[in-house]
Automatic annotation (TrEMBL):
Pfam families: ABC_tran (PF00005), TOBE_2 (PF08402). Signal peptide: none annotated. Belongs to the ABC transporter superfamily. Spermidine/putrescine importer (TC 3.A.1.11.1) family. This is Spermidine/putrescine import ATP-binding protein PotA.
Length: 357
């Protein structure tokens, strides 16, 4: 992909004796769109604040472009932050808001004027110079907050749930805008969200966090299709996670039936967790299925039908464009490539996580 721009090395952080981040290691490539994704309280904002210099780690280092910046003040770092609440100055115009940081740096009036124009064009709000922030919609205010950050020409933009306060439609528009903006600016974005769809839509690289640990990192496709554990699988989307037995390489017993798969190296007759996405279960005639079951619930979801299928005392979630009415006896088939095998959690922490799944 590219070279490392920011590296977090062995970062530890505790508040009042409670560990929040425990030996966190993370590398962020230059010019990538990286998202920290995880449930509330998992340490996303803390991680971002450590990168931004607003918070000091108890242990570990923050490396920026090869240099240790762990002790460097926020304003000396080549990055800018956009927060969830736009924090615009309401007594100033849009232009004055954007100019604020540049005036502190004693830039010339002409330079500032050009920058304001450039930034407003980038965020699609040309001509808004003299408006007051209060006269703008939430989405427009957030764009101004972004414009204010980018006129400083940071190498990295840190964004902490910047779309959290917006309604769904506006959020989707802004997701697209942010992606475009990142391409146009050619800088690194580090984005924090607890919304998995947002993360999947925008990112080049997703870092899934839980309880201060990185659970998995990778491309959106990898995270979605090849979750490494039950927490990631469950957090990233509706999934069927079934405790099963790996009989040998490429053969797994799920709910008493043998399924071919493509995974190897899990050992023989070993317990594993299997993830099957709802859209990857194929409902066929009973005699053609590897397992049989009965449809117990059906909901129309617009693009597809969502069905519960009971088999061997388990409910499986199935998404399909083909309708099978409640009460229908069905066969269940899964393509070997769509069976994802994961190790059964070992540590107590992981066990606790999988119990909540
Ligand atoms: N200044 C602080 N003093 C004490 N505890 C803190 C402080 N900042 C954060 N914490 C705690 O650290 C944990 C992680 O907080 P953090 O803000 O990093 O979570 P988050 O992943 O950003 O969550 P959210 O999605 O809700 O914003 C939480 O339990 C929080 O209460
Ligand atoms: Mg947060």
């Amino acid at each position: 992909m590219g070279k490392d721009l920011i590296t977090l090395k062995n970062i530890c952080k505790a508040y009042d004796g409670t560990t929040i981040l425990d030996d966190l290691n993370l590398s962020i490539y230059e010019n990538s769109f990286v998202t920290l994704l995880g449930p509330s309280g998992c340490g996303k904002t803390t991680t971002l604040r450590i990168i931004g210099g607003f918070e000091k780690p108890d242990k570990g280092q923050v490396i920026f472009d090869g240099q240790d910046i762990t002790d460097l003040a926020p304003n000396k770092r080549q990055l800018n932050t956009v927060f969830q609440k736009y924090a615009l100055f309401t007594h100033m115009s849009v232009a004055e808001n954007i100019a604020f940081g540049l005036k502190i740096k004693n830039k010339s009036d002409n330079y500032i004027k050009d920058k304001i124009k450039y930034a407003l064009k980038l965020v699609n709000l040309e001509g808004y110079e003299n408006r007051s922030p209060e006269s703008l919609s939430g989405g427009q205010q957030q764009r101004i907050a972004i414009a204010r950050a980018i006129v400083n020409e940071p190498k990295v933009l840190l964004l902490d749930e910047p779309l959290g306060a917006l309604d769904l439609k506006m959020r989707q528009d802004m997701q697209y805008e942010l992606k475009r903006l990142k391409e146009e600016l050619g800088i690194t974005f580090i984005y924090v969200t607890h919304d998995q769809e947002e993360a999947l839509t925008m990112s080049d690289h997703i870092v899934v966090m839980n309880q201060g640990y990185i659970q998995q990192e990778g491309s959106p496709e990898t995270i979605y299709n090849e979750p490494e554990n039950a927490f990631v699988a469950d957090f990233i989307g509706d999934s069927n996670i079934i405790r099963s037995t790996m009989i040998r390489d490429e053969l797994v017993e799920i709910l008493g039936a043998k399924f071919s798969c493509v995974d190897k190296g899990f050992g023989n007759n070993k317990p594993v967790d299997v993830v099957i996405r709802p859209e990857d279960i194929e409902l066929v005639a009973p005699e053609d299925g590897t397992l049989t079951g009965v449809v117990t619930d059906l909901t129309f979801k617009g693009v597809h039908y969502e069905m519960d299928v009971e088999t061997c005392g388990r409910e499986l979630l199935v998404h399909s464009t083909k309708l099978s009415a409640v009460g229908t006896k069905v066969g269940i088939k899964v393509d070997p490539f769509n069976i994802q095998i994961m190790n059964v959690p070992v540590s107590e922490d992981e066990e606790a996580i999988s119990e909540t799944v």
